[in-house]
Specification:
This protein is mostly beta strands. The chain contains one helix and nine strands, in the order H-E-E-E-E-E-E-E-E-E. It starts with a helix and ends with a strand. It holds the Pfam family BubE.
Length: 118
């Protein structure tokens, strides 16, 4: 009986490791300031790009792995607007970031550079 329980537990852990969101754990590794969107590279990777001075947009690649680009408004004159802060070189956003369901539907926080899935 103990072997059967161990087998089921190990099988469950294996299935859990295959969950579709398992690849979505990562951090924002770098923050780069650019003057305009035209300065953005084709592949954003784990880099957060801040566009404009003062900051108008934060642009990042969706951490779910879908490849979409997320544009986060930082201008108080437009809605919705997010608060952005940096502590020890690590970004945080408030409120959470939510990609529309017609795209990938990702919903997450960025706190101290870490992606926290909702």
């Amino acid at each position: 009986m103990k072997n059967l329980i161990t087998w089921f537990w190990n099988f469950w852990l294996y299935l859990w490791s295959l969950r579709p969101w398992s690849h979505r754990r990562h951090e924002i590794s770098t923050i780069v300031h650019v003057g305009s969107r035209s300065e953005l590279p084709d592949k954003l990777g784990r880099t957060l790009y801040i566009v404009g001075d003062p900051a108008k947009w934060a642009i990042l690649q969706c951490p779910c792995g879908c490849g979409d680009t997320i544009d986060v408004n930082l201008m108080k004159s437009r809605n919705p607007v997010w608060r952005f802060s940096v502590a020890n070189g690590k970004p945080s956003f408030h409120p959470s970031l939510w990609v529309p369901a017609e795209k990938c539907g990702a919903h997450f926080w960025i706190r101290d550079g870490k992606i926290i899935w909702v």
